[in-house]
Request: fold
Amino acid sequence: MTGLFALLGGALAAALLVSAGSGQLPVPAQEVAGSLLHRLGLDWLPLPSHPRGDATLWSVRFPRVAMAALVGAALAVAGALMQGVFGNPLAEPSIVGVSSGAAVGAAGVIVFGLTFAGGWTVAVAAFAGGLLTTLLVYALARSGGRTEVVTLVLTGIAVNAVAGALLALLMFLGDTQAREQIVFWQLGSLNGSRWPYVAVVAPLVVAGVVLALLSARSLDLLALGERPARHLGVHVERLRVGLIVVVALLTAAAVCFCGIVAFVGLVVPHLVRMVTGPGHRLVLPACLLAGSLVLVVADLAARTLVAYADLPLGMLTSLVGGPFFFWLLWRTRRTSGGWA
Reply:
């Protein structure tokens, strides 16, 4: 598996360089690398030849590709955790209401014109909405000190439906400008990413990923079934609750500045498991690299497919991810007769 991680790491590094150099002001990959090395005190490669090249890289391109890598890693790892916790290959972070709650939070401050956090208000409201919705789903699903998976999923579906109705109500109450802003936020975009945003998202994603990696062995034991896992020393309820909180943290951090980006948390873990197998000690770090790679490439396509336009990132991932996931379903059904 060392070759897989080397391949993913190399592909991610290449994608980051190409993505940072692509746009209305093209910068060759060699000069992008030269700019990075120069900041580290190493003058090994040439600096950008265009007079605005270095400033463009550091003020616009590098924050955007860094945010793409962080968001992709967060969503892919969150998806792998959800599938491990629920024991269901169709599980994804939105099941526990993070995305819908974040959308309601963002829409609420947009419609009512709230500015309690200045330019960060929408992101703060989205983050808080995602976390609070997840906690609500967990509180409603818990009974007798236990939380059954089926009850949690059904509660998540119900809360998502209510959140969807609230979102529709807010769009009805808002004016045309507010509706357009809500729709654009829901479509997802990395446009406008800045270093202060990256500085907020990065520690949350790092903390979530570290907690996920520490839980890899327990997730492997949980895959044997709840009763065998308990006999092997796993506190199933505590593990499940803790990982749902980690999923909420990762997903809320991912969507708060960028809006909703679909299918990354569903498709990437499937692709990774096809190569690594089910063991989470390999799946989780591979999802981290693969998720970053997928979203960096998707964002590059969003910026370059149409000249002088920035396509919505969530729309692009859905257009590609939907048919691709259908192919995964068809392939699995054909080769093994279904998911069971």
Summary: The two ends are 26 Å apart (CA to CA).
